[in-house]
Write a structure and sequence with these properties.
With 356 residues, the chain is mainly β. Helices cover 7% and strands 36% of the residues. It has two helices and 20 strands. The strands form five sheets. It has a five-stranded mixed beta sheet with strand order 3-2-5-6-8, with no helix packed on it. It has a five-stranded mixed beta sheet with strand order 10-15-16-13-14. It is elongated, with a radius of gyration of 28 Å. The termini are far apart. The N terminus and C terminus are likely disordered.
Length: 356
């Protein structure tokens, strides 16, 4: 390597590590805070450990600076326990610190003096509002995603819960996942950026998720719609930045089974045209847990969802996620049953409107 290239590398290395330290990335967050004693004085040189409550692993070990401050960046989305240990103070734990996508959670870790060895657990005073940057948007947790009703089990129907985002009403009778159009702050639907686990998932022809795979709601840990003022680490378009994080395994085994059932016999009947044939079964399950003794070999998570659906409101009246079925002749007819007791006739025009 020439002397000029070596000099260029040495000059760029500090910039590289500086950007790595401060950028959160598309799929991570951070915890920042200050360690204080009971009088409010800062505690310098305190040892801070960031432990995942899902796996029990210590992901970061830090030391507070002269101002008692610490920052743990690039943390996966989840719930953490912050442990603080300083000379003359007991080991103090602050559980339940939530880290959200692209956000920095700030806490004030107040510890007290002690003359005996003890362990203290207190509730962390975490700020619910992100004060570290001006990014606007809202994080939606897995509880909200799985609790709110979704006609076609497509999480994109919930993207308009953020301020500034709007979406068309998805057709509950359409086959498959339906077509969801998201407009953020008046921008076009193809001006958004979709990320899954921090990786771009947008269809480059349309800038949407129209022709790309969509994870089912039960596999989503959290997602966020950044509507404006996000930096270059999060999005590349001028519209909304949609970032979804998938679930992962934990230190204990956990699984679910589900089925979402719809049938024509359970639907209300239209007075004039009766009912469309609509039969829908969406089912699946997931399982996650540790690999090896207490997760020494890692963690795993698997998820499956199947769809069986018949709809008289679509050209192809049958969908099956396992066996592809092509529309055949006659399937385009709507299997409707007229129920109206009244004749549907057009009344004659009044004499004043008739042609001479």
């Amino acid at each position: 390597m020439s002397t000029t290239r070596k000099l260029a590398v040495l000059l760029l290395l500090p910039l590289f590590f500086a950007s790595f330290a401060f950028a959160q990335g598309g799929a991570t967050g951070a915890i920042a805070g200050v360690v204080q004693d009971q009088s409010g004085a800062v505690v310098a040189g305190a040892k801070v450990a960031i432990k995942s409550e899902a796996t029990g692993e210590v992901l970061r070990q830090l030391t507070t600076d002269s101002s008692g401050l610490f920052t743990a960046t690039l943390l996966p989305v989840g719930v953490y326990t912050v442990e603080v240990n300083a000379a003359g103070f007991p080991l103090t734990r602050f559980p339940g610190v939530v880290v959200r996508i692209t956000e920095t959670t700030r806490i004030t870790a107040a510890i007290k003096l002690s003359t005996v060895k003890e362990i203290v657990e207190v509730q962390a005073e975490a700020q619910q509002v992100d004060t570290t940057d001006a990014t606007t948007g809202e994080s939606i947790s897995s509880t909200t995603v799985t609790t709110l009703p979704l006609a076609t089990r497509n999480f994109q129907q919930l993207l308009d819960l953020s301020a500034g985002a709007s979406a068309d009403l998805n057709s509950a009778a359409a086959l498959g996942r339906g077509n969801v159009r998201i407009d953020v702050n008046g921008g076009r639907e193809d001006n958004n950026n979709y990320l899954i686990e921090g990786v771009s998932a947008s269809d480059y022809s349309f800038g949407e998720l129209t022709f790309t795979p969509v994870p089912n709601p039960d596999s989503i840990q959290e997602f966020k719609v950044g509507t404006s003022l996000y930096d270059a680490t999060q999005g590349r378009n001028g519209g909304g930045n949609i970032n979804a994080i998938l679930k992962s395994g934990t230190s204990s085994f956990h699984g679910d089974l589900w089925e979402y059932f719809r049938n024509t016999k359970l639907d209300a009947e239209d007075f004039f045209i009766g009912r469309f044939d609509l039969k829908q079964n969406i089912f699946g399950g997931d399982l996650g847990g540790p690999v090896g003794n207490k997760g020494k070999l890692g963690y795993f998570y698997v998820n499956y969802q199947g769809t069986r659906q018949r709809s008289g409101d679509s050209l192809g009246t049958y969908i099956n996620t396992s066996i592809p079925v092509l529309p055949t002749s006659g399937r385009g007819l709507l299997p409707m049953r007229p129920r109206s007791p009244l004749p549907l006739a057009v009344p004659p025009l009044p004499p004043a409107l008739r042609s001479p």
